[in-house]
């Protein structure tokens, strides 16, 4: 199946963040994709105009970039049959869903201010102290080969106690430790979603979840935030989903928090329909001062067997720690452990011992940083209101992101223009399985206030250039001149 312009734009990533004419930057990135096999021989490339629209550049930029690659012998262009990567087509591995924002968010920052991937940028002192406290435990390990698919007992116990403090009684046997929240979602997709199965998600939602469920070639159906309409969506047995997924606390990207009555209704509906409901609580720790958040959704279930809760330390402590977990019924934990053993046998034991030292004080650690997170959220909103008053920027009560609505245009094309002005943002369409949110952007507020000020200044400059059509031009020479 040929790549759509949006899919190729996703693979190009931050192609325009370097120095030099746009057509040369585009040609360089396409060349790399071809040489590394990301664009295999025979792959069809989008037409000039369509790709130009997706990248928010003039058609001449794409024509010139394609011409560079044609002269080099990397692509073939024929009237009537379009543009293809040179060489005979060959079968390759099944593609992932290619969540539009997922991989290139992790690229080095270079000169770009990163308002796309929200996470702490350095390990905090409490993590270093936790490792120091964990070393004596590691030194006493004997008769233990270290392969623990369900996780180290000390950390499983610490996670269970953490949930008990939050009003959700939990046994250590209900916990499986994972290498971060993303692995947790991938394991759940493999455990519950049949090839070609159905998954219910919110629109918009966390793009990593769309990627994880799409790996199973699932049909993803989007419902409004809070899974409004869940009961009717599972009413017909023939259309019963394999899994439903939501972010109940500090929703990614809107920051919304589901009230207790909605949590209770969803828990009852999931139990009645016998549909596993995954509650992603990775952001639940990031509440602003003075705000109250309800207990985990599983606390509202009568038996708790049908609700699966996902947690992680990536956003509250540091992504490099790679510690996440799943809370579920014991039969589900046993099933997940078998799947986990097939892939990596278990996680990093020293990191798990350090995490076990962190968990008892996690709430206190997050509370110490809550005022700073709120101040940065408020500062970003104030700067956007000052320099971009036409943008609609609702406040949040916690979390890490703002969900911005543009007054016109679309997020995909504006994100390309913003990148050329030195700031990376996430267009909303990549977070919305329904095909909506095209005029939305996701911005994060983790950065220091001076960085946020500069980021908004660059966004304002990009918006002035963007106008209504998103084309800021390119002085690329003509294809005829390139061929000489």
TrEMBL record:
Domain of life of the source: Bacteria
Signal sequence bounds: none
CDD domains cross-referenced by the UniProt entry: AAT_like, WHTH_GntR
Keywords recorded for this protein, A-Z: Aminotransferase, DNA-binding, Pyridoxal phosphate, Transcription, Transcription regulation, Transferase
Entries under PROSITE patterns matching the protein: HTH_GNTR
Record GO terms (molecular function): transaminase activity
InterPro entries the record matches: Aminotransferase_I/II_large, HTH_trans_reg/aminotransferase, PyrdxlP-dep_Trfase, PyrdxlP-dep_Trfase_major, Tscrpt_reg_HTH_GntR, WH-like_DNA-bd_sf, WH_DNA-bd_sf
Ranges of residues in domain HTH gntR-type: 20-88
Keyword Nucleus: no
Family: In the C-terminal section; belongs to the class-I pyridoxal-phosphate-dependent aminotransferase family.
Name of the protein described by the UniProt record: PLP-dependent aminotransferase family protein
